[in-house]
Amino acid sequence: MGLAGYRRGANSSQEINPATATRDVRLRKSLSRFLLPRHSVFLDQMNWSARWLETVRRYSNCAQFAVREKMYSHLNGEYLGDGKKPIDYLEFGVYEGRSLAYWTALNAHPDSRFFGFDSFEGLPEGWNRENPVGSYNAEGKIPQIDDSRVQFVVGWFQKSLPPFLVSHRPKSPLVLHCDGDLYSSTLCSLASMDPWIVPGTLIIFDEFFDPVHEYRALEDYAAAYMRKYEVVAATRDFVQAAIKIT
Ligand SMILES: C[S@@+](CC[C@H](N)C(=O)[O-])C[C@H]1O[C@@H](n2cnc3c(N)ncnc32)[C@H](O)[C@@H]1O
To answer: For 70, which of 29, 53, 83, 99 is 20 to 30 Å away at the CA?
Structure first.
């Protein structure tokens, strides 16, 4: 028997045997004292990289593009009626509005709706060495996008999503664009949006390449909410990727 989990007692299929659990915990404590006394981000990264690579290998035949704008056009044409049908597009992480503005131009249907979520104060935590806390701080400035179909929901996703969802009613096929960079921000947006996510929902990840942030959030969301997905498109080296809920 291994160390994973607290095993059930020998005479009962339901009860956890406290003596076995205690022995497991003590053994695990001694092992980590000698082998790995502190949590290792590096080991997390290595382990999740292996998992990321498995996903990338599984979907190596998906549609691939040199740049993200070409991937967006492909998604709009292949899955979203090429602008002839309305969509509900929700972007988590807007900053200066480049990707949001691109999508409004791509999907010109008058009934499409575009929601941009952002604090406009930058990342709430450090993402990596190059992007510390506060990176992408727009000093509270909301982008000027001259399109009445666009609405901004200002604030931290963790605070702004619950009240938004109280009154939000989906109207058209949903497209989610996760560009909050962080594990916490991405997991929060996916979990919050879960009631509206259905088979066929497209979700774009702008930093799919980072195994311990957006990718890990997707995997943890899928496990926690019993979701399955397939990768339908990616940019070179799976830097960005789009998945479809199946
Ligand atoms: C890389 S930028 C977005 C870039 C934009 N989508 C583009 O392509 O031009 C990341 C944005 O996510 C926002 N962000 C990250 N986590 C957030 C959170 N938990 N709540 C609100 N905004 C968040 C930051 O403020 C930042 O503007």
So the answer is: 53
